What we know:
Layout: H1 3-16, E1 23-29, H2 32-45, E2 51-53, H3 61-71, E3 74-78, H4 90-98, H5 100-104, E4 108-115, H6 119-125, H7 127-130, E5 135-139, H8 164-180, H9 186-203, H10 206-227, H11 230-246, H12 250-267, H13 270-286, H14 290-308, H15 313-328, H16 332-350, H17 355-370, H18 374-392, H19 397-412, H20 416-434, H21 439-454
Parallel strand pairs: 1-4, 1-5, 2-3, 3-4
Amino acid sequence: MEQSAFYEELQLLGRMLREEQFRFILAEYNHMSAIRQAEDFVRKTYPRRSILFVTIKGSHFRRFSRQIKDFKQGIVFIPDFDELFRPENDDFRIAFNQRRDWLAQQPLALIAFLPAGGLPTVMQGMPDFWSRRDAELSLLVNPPERSGLVMQTPHISSIGGLNAADKTAELQRMNAEIAAADPNNFSQLDNLYRQLLPLLEDIGDYQAGLVAARDYHYLAHRQDDAYGDLPSLRYAHDCLATFHRYLGQYTDAEYHARKALELAEISGDEVAITDTQNNLALVLQDLGDYAGAKVLLEKAMASAERNFGELHPTTAVSYSNLATVLQDLGDYAGAKDLQEKAMASAERNFGELHPTTAVRYSNLATVLKDLGDYAGAKVLLEKAMASDERNFGELHPTTAVRYLNLGAVLIGLADYDQARPLLEKAQKVFISKFGENHPDSDTAQGWLAELDRLEGKVG
């Protein structure tokens, strides 16, 4: 939205608040800075009026009504009005709607904020209150450039335990067994490689992972030529796509991801199709084909929900992956909803200290940052960072992602002294693991350059 249009909407808000009587105003927003700008405008326009912020999440109608009674008169901001329409808040919503006559008698202006596109939800879920609305505002601002935070997609396997030391010990054992195995015993080697490859992904040794994936692909290709083993060949292409992607080799990753999907479709294995759709979509996203990625991920999500249900870890992967694409397309509210579902699944299935849950915390944090909620992002990233330091140590690429993301959020909070050492640690790990030309290394360098600019260290 042009700045002039945003200003006109604020002027309309100001006119609606002239009389100190009941008003119910619905305001759609696309970035949390819009709420802050609306608050600043109201405070400057009506400096003598009292303002109360009331949140829906984690509350109930009795608490809400008590807050209203104690406040008595003024302007009430409800920044998360959309929470009222979640299933867990049905009682709150019903009570809110039923007490509309009581609320209408109060000398209050209720300004209810919803993510852009949320008005139909109010119309359908609260038709009586909808009819009492006084205005609908469109507070859409030009959002800042994408956060530059790094998203993560893997589900951390349980092979070898959940910390780097145990996984490294298991990796050494796997390598020894592979070296000693009969090269013609594909069944044995297949079992060993299906443990080795996830281990290499988990510990972040992506170059060694690519080498191992090539070795396995050679074996799987021979097996398919001799016996028609499409599942093994598909898995080999999937692994090659994964490690090429981690190393920033996106065109190679796309080739192998498409081969994996082609083989999955030939076999007709719906679960394998879902997995390969997810993996190809991630590569398309890296290549900037967000529309193509979205189509694949919507199919994968529908299949996962049908086959596993909404709380299954496989479905959570689809939620999180689709959320990253929605984020790239600017649908931050949709991305937030899916990342919250993925996080809830991880907490339920793995607990708060599991590496997979840390990934979910980090990914949700990137959405919160894009929505301007730096404080909320900081809390989640600190939890993720503590988990990964404990499970993997400070030199693991996953932990480095936490350092990078938290450092970027701290820049947003103007906490430059805390941000710099985190960004420097992230950059050191990325360069040592991937080299200076890897996308993650570039991202870390970009944030350090931005920090230099903010602190006046460059012209």
